Amino acid sequence: MPNLNLDALLNPAAIAVVGASPSNSNGVGSRALHQLRRFAGRPIFMVHPRANPDDDPMSVVSVDALPESIDLLIVAVPAAHVVDVIRAGATKGIPAALIFTSGFAEGGAEGAAAQQELREISAQTGMLINGPNTIGFLNLHERLLATFYLPADCELPTPGPVAFVSQSGALATYIDDLARDRGINAGWLVTTGNESVVRLTDVLEYLVERPEVRVLAGTSEGLTDVDAFVRVAAKAAELGKPFVFVKAGSSPAGMTAVMSHTASISGADEVFDAVCQQYGVLRAASLEEALDWVAMLQPGRSAGSGRVALLSGSGGAGVLMADAADAAGLEVLPTPEQDRKVIDELIPSFGSSANPIDMTAQAIASGVESYQRILDAIFASDAFDSVVIASGLRGAQSIDVAHAIAASYASTTKTLAVGWYSLNAESREVLVRAGIPTYPDMSRAVNAVAALRRFEDERSSVTPEPATRVDKARRVRALAILSEADVSTALTEEQSKSLLSLYEIPVVQERGVASVDDAVAMAEQMASYPVVVKVLSAELPHKSDVGGVKVGLADADAVRRAGEEILTAVAQHRPDAVIDGLLVQQMAPPGVELVFGAHRDPVFGPTVTVGLGGVLVEVIAEVALRKAPLTIEQARAAITGLSGGRLVSHARGVDRNQVDELAGVLVRVGDLMVEVDQISEIDINPVIVSAAGPLVADALIVRGTE
Amino acid sequence: MPNLNLDALLNPAAIAVVGASPSNSNGVGSRALHQLRRFAGRPIFMVHPRANPDDDPMSVVSVDALPESIDLLIVAVPAAHVVDVIRAGATKGIPAALIFTSGFAEGGAEGAAAQQELREISAQTGMLINGPNTIGFLNLHERLLATFYLPADCELPTPGPVAFVSQSGALATYIDDLARDRGINAGWLVTTGNESVVRLTDVLEYLVERPEVRVLAGTSEGLTDVDAFVRVAAKAAELGKPFVFVKAGSSPAGMTAVMSHTASISGADEVFDAVCQQYGVLRAASLEEALDWVAMLQPGRSAGSGRVALLSGSGGAGVLMADAADAAGLEVLPTPEQDRKVIDELIPSFGSSANPIDMTAQAIASGVESYQRILDAIFASDAFDSVVIASGLRGAQSIDVAHAIAASYASTTKTLAVGWYSLNAESREVLVRAGIPTYPDMSRAVNAVAALRRFEDERSSVTPEPATRVDKARRVRALAILSEADVSTALTEEQSKSLLSLYEIPVVQERGVASVDDAVAMAEQMASYPVVVKVLSAELPHKSDVGGVKVGLADADAVRRAGEEILTAVAQHRPDAVIDGLLVQQMAPPGVELVFGAHRDPVFGPTVTVGLGGVLVEVIAEVALRKAPLTIEQARAAITGLSGGRLVSHARGVDRNQVDELAGVLVRVGDLMVEVDQISEIDINPVIVSAAGPLVADALIVRGTE
């Protein structure tokens, strides 16, 4: 699916506002009209029945009376009139509309019906509709303030590289306020409200490729088009643009709230998390954390290989920062000798030039020149990729220190974060103007550098979205196997394994036979001793208990003996049971047991899982989940990430070759789910991994109910 | 060990400052003198060689010249003179000293030697010494500002129920500043600096029992007396006083920094974490988080059973709060019908009275009366124990809303937290005066309520520190077994199992015998078929490979046959090997495998661990660690907490009776470590848990090197 071209909506050449009143300058329409006319530098019309061209030459009495050049119709009329206005605009051929009015799907059945009408008008005419129940957008690079929430006399905010997208208008104003406090320059802020037509993901797809956007950040309560989200994430990774996301409704309580609030379903949170991992999206737990990260990503500098220098005037602060750095995966390496010499000359003997670097309060008090020289020396060191400063200064001295930090930062291309809890407005202004990310807590400053590092690290391993590889011939054969299954939704073990074999997933060979002679012949044919022989009977679920299982049979004689003993024992224990024959089964060599699975999420579509197998491991219940289809690299990352990497690093785990083979299995299980959407669930337990490679011992495939 | 009585140090009747200069009012001594004289209302002397009683009637020229009534000597002279001043004070019988001067153990070998001299003076005279290198303390209930970091003209801070204790002076000023911003009223702020004599834990032990202290919070880089820390934590839990702690140096990088910075060792962070879990200490990851929690704990209200109402003017904010509440273990239950009716009359139809409650921006704009009535209705509901409000208001309206919230809060005893990112100074003042905890982020407000809830929850399950139960007779027998072991530090399997048996830990019976006949006799004597027979030979580490192991032997005949076959097979495979005989071993019934361990931490002393066993489980490597000795309740909590509770809840896990038996084993492994401190390490792998109870199959005990 191609992106929607949102130019008419988000960068319109001419705009008309319906619902701005000549007599009430405080309505949302009037406020938006005011802001647009202050800055936009393009025709902004007003539509109002009492419009008087003598008072306002850019006003008309109806949508019909507008000139042909209008790209965007902004609608702020009462809910009862919205559909008529939109219809008039669509009829006139206006390509886009923005509807501020609320009281649609979020307000009950009647509103939902009206919203459906809007959707239909769009479907018939191609009109792009943002809203209803949206607070509009800012496109600051084009000086467009298509919103009503800013103060009437606000200055035009400085446009920057960050694009924020939010479904909720309230959260958007929260983000905008907070971002401004933090020195984050948003070039874009787009809200999507009820998403009757244009969705959050449409906006993200439009923005991710725009050259002026270098950092993407969004929040949403329900993602309705996860494929589009995957496209955005993959594109952002490809272009090297960090993408920060806060998904509201990640918890059961949150999801319930979303459903009652927006009437939209959200898919399983674990699947969303998997998508973020697969495509390098930085998922933040709160808006505060998201803004902490965006502030760090905005400068576009690098955290290199994560070697961080920690500078403060107190040993205790240094230790706390070192703890935070360690926990977040940054490296706190010792300052090299030659750099220590430079620093030691600038600090008292009871300070420390090791890392963390304790310049002491005394060195700070002794003058700002030495502060800057110390910081210059740290930036100049080859041993560090970034610097985090903790400061608790107040008063007159702090502005001098802020200037020193700003000057040092201007002379380097390395990354800097400042944790300065007592930062006053004047000093903050100095740091913000210099483009330096500041934090009210030193641990948060460290964590933000770690987020940048994580982005850079993951970016290198994010693979593009896999091309959808539907193999039609294979699909036909799969459907044939499915159709053999009787009315029950679960396939038999044999059918399940046939399907897996079709997708080149190695399964234990096995075959039901009618007699002991046939069992011997089948075992010879398999040519893969040792084998297992089991009694085949629907009436004997616990075969071992009745002497119905013999394992480790090394040759034809052993198979014959086992078959005879089984039939005798079963006849003795359960003379009543109907015996269907014998099952001859290849015996998997001993090895590490894993479990694979697949599931179809109602919103996010097919997913696959891989986890450790075995009895106690079920208790531990650790699995990695990924969205299908997936690339071999994504599959490998899922497997090597199990148990904190120990599945691969541990002597009793699996080796690199086995990881590659297992990754192939995971990819192909995903392909099966993608190609055959009649399957709702796959449970493969266990897959036994030995030197001979992975082998599926048991598998169950479930068809969806149609 | 009894607490140190720190009255003379922290609540002295009369004080003398040495090192305040009549001519330099900016020195640290002079600044402290100034603050003490402003507020303390008790005699504060100055000691200075050029003191002139005409200028200052409370000044003397030497320590000798001081009156007998002095309790506390505050020392701010240069490092070279400190020891002499302290000696003079001690000689005079002054019971306590506070040393601001730095340049001791933190500044090299010479300073360390001087610090050792201070310690010796204290040991000889009983003088309590706080410091050197400390910034002193505030005891605001007694109007004592024994410090130099506050501005000369500061007002006397309002004393409150919170006591802060910090080793680092810099972190203490950070805490003090931040606490004041957050409306936290510290009654105490004590720093301990280099801890030559008085340690952080001494101060905590002194403060925890004081009636005016209701919340305890501390931070330290290295805990040198973990037993005292355990006593404080257990006492705090007993008295219902929350205890929040930030341990700097929790990571390898942080620990390295601590060592270079304070030259003190810190114990393994996992052990500290275990102590916090055992004794209900709220361990925060950063100072910001600690202060978030303290602000919530200060009012002394309850979070009840954790049912939280979430109120905002936006659906999106409600969802984000619900996510945070869910993740933090709070309950977001629906508003009951009768309460919804009250709320519905006060909000527009597109709002929501469900929980999260979206009152809408419109309801907020419509007037502050309805705001207060909505909040009153929520507080009045039986369905909620606490309320979290998210607000993004700015401007004139916010102060009215703050007053409405304050009025509603005054009329209830329930808990409230306000997340208000755009809170202005005036509105903040209203909320702070009302005693309401405020947060710059709504998720942080929710998390703080969860911390209160966690404290209340854990308080109920914290057991007092176990009485040390040294059984002297048992200890003598244990030492006898240890002494049998030869020079190697590892005991044999048999010796290890004997020791465990002595502590009533059930071990697999086994005995080495010389011949097949003896093996049969031994098996008959054990009377616990099936048994295992193994070849006994130090030269055959891989017994199975040479046919040296036979399992599942059901009777005497089987044992005889097995013994003969083993000897034949071994003679065939390894004719060269010296055979010591045969091992007859009880065969544990199949069951869940666990691993137990014990270790002696250089700082924290004996610890025990319990985790899941089995091959793949080693890969997963999850263990619970606890400090020994431990109570049966603490042991039970450690076991039931494994794998997120699934070891107990899962069908393939263990049942309640088995948990009790396993908890007993854990307690007794701890007792063994406590009683016999010659043991450095115990490794019990596996313990097999079947219907017959736990049974140790293999064990290894290691003696410490002396």
Automatic annotation (TrEMBL), chains A, B:
One annotated GO molecular function: ligase activity
Keyword Glycoprotein: no
Record-annotated CoA-binding domain positions: 9-104
Highest taxon in the source lineage: Bacteria
Keywords in alphabetical order: Ligase
Statement: the UniProt record of this protein carries the keyword Lipid biosynthesis: no
Protein name per Swiss-Prot or TrEMBL: Acetate--CoA ligase family protein
Source organism phylogeny: Bacteria, Bacillati, Actinomycetota, Actinomycetes, Micrococcales
